């Protein structure tokens, strides 16, 4: 008897294999075709990337029905309409039903599950006919009418008593809504600021009414069941859109049956509605994704300096910089009022940036509030970096002591000097930029710290020599050198800084110097640069990584106590 050959199975790389069965008689061999595999791989590389598919659920600009007849740059072109189903329920039972039906409601960001339409307060429905006894004449006097309205007070009380209306004015938003309705269709500021709107498309038919009667009882159903009674809409999940009553989940039916049995003679109605999400609803990244060409990286964030948004756009973003800036301005109002972009890197001694105003106000003067302190800043003439606020607080809260005397060599407008002055004994602040020194003095007065800070405007080496050679200053215990690009080069000023002091023992100051490093081991690289500047092997250097400035580029802070051998060396800072 001849044994049959083992079965062969051909694998195609573009298919998903089903579960393989093991054949008992013989072995299973897999035969691959490398030629077809290579052809498939090359074809997939040459094929264009498929467009992004919209998410199956939730709000998205790639889903819904857009508003037609609008230019692409108009805000209304971002409006999207979605079909929904909603439960019209009495307002009194709305809160309890929302808690119990939470998992079956819409639950979209920035959209309330409870919708309130203009006629939901009972004004749009006919009141039940009054009995002859109740339709008698109104109370004859104004006092009697006032007492009657006090017992049955509603919005109509404002019409009857203008003085009471003035005393109990509605909220500002309600006034804007009323003003918008009185303009007769003319677009107002409130209508421009709308985020979404809910509209009812149709009411339930006779068949739906019979189904709901069987569910909630034979008490009045539909519009006539709550004539004159306030109602609300509970927006159901979008998966329930265009469903009939019998197609709703059993959990929803059980909740409604329980409410009808134990909550009194309530009526419910399933209505079809639609929700329209306007331009103000969509987040910034989703709007930019719809506006920018496919394949361009969406700008993720920006630095905030007061009311100014500081962008660092790539070269591929520059053709669309005005569009990006307008979206950033729209999505961050009223906090952001100006959007700027850095044109070039910092290359001058004053550390000022060349900025281009893309949107908003033309002024670059702003006020920054940091840790309860106020700083006046002009980005056109001074330097400010909000991303270093955590590092500044680390110095003040964890390193500086109440008895310290701080020497800020590159103070700028004073973020470290003024923050430290709230805690330490005294601060000496210096900067080479005259504009920065002017704003530093303003900020000192603004924060009421004139008695604890002394300001200088000179070169860093002259300033350090003056602080350690003068007999009329407090002994410096902390030195901050926050100039990451060049601070390590100024460390040579400390070599022999105390060689001419005639006093007794002097406590060595602790130096905090900042710098950049692109090395694989940034701590070792920065430590070697410190040793080279001080012409000595400095022990006990504590390294702290401040932040990752760019891929592979770290900003570091090295803290060490100045060695006495370096401070009392005979050589000056020019030669070792």
In brief, what are we looking at here?
The protein is α/β, with parallel strands linked by helices and 576 residues long. The chain has 17 helices and 21 strands. The strands form five sheets. The protein has a seven-stranded mixed β-sheet with strand order 17-16-15-18-19-21-20, sandwiched between helices. Strands 3, 4, 5, 6, 7 and 8 form a six-stranded antiparallel β-sheet that branches.
Molecular structure report:
Keywords: Cytoplasm, Methyltransferase, Mitochondrion, Nucleus, S-adenosyl-L-methionine, Transferase, tRNA processing. Monomer. It comes from Hordeum vulgare subsp. vulgare. Its main location: mitochondrion. This is tRNA (guanine(37)-N1)-methyltransferase. The protein has 576 residues and is α/β, with parallel strands linked by helices. Among the domains are: 59-114 and 229-282, no CATH class; 284-363, GMP Synthetase, Chain A, domain 3 (2-Layer Sandwich); 387-568, Vaccinia Virus protein VP39 (Rossmann fold, 3-Layer(aba) Sandwich). It is 27% helix and 20% strand. The protein is built from 17 helices and 21 strands. The protein has helices at residues 34-46, 94-100, 142-151, 157-160, 162-167, 172-182, 189-192, 206-216, 250-262, 284-291, 321-331, 389-399, 415-421, 434-446, 460-469, 522-534, 564-567, and strands at residues 8-10, 29-31, 65-66, 80-90, 114-115, 196-202, 231-235, 269-277, 303-305, 308-311, 338-342, 355-360, 365-370, 373-378, 405-408, 426-430, 453-456, 478-481, 510-517, 542-550, 553-561. The chain has a 7-stranded mixed β-sheet, sandwiched between helices. Strands 3, 4, 5, 6, 7 and 8 form a 6-stranded antiparallel β-sheet that branches. Strand 16, helix 14 and strand 17 form a beta-alpha-beta unit. Helix 10 packs antiparallel against helix 11 (321-331). The longest helix is centred in the first third of the chain and has 13 residues, at 34-46. The chain is elongated and about 95 Å long.
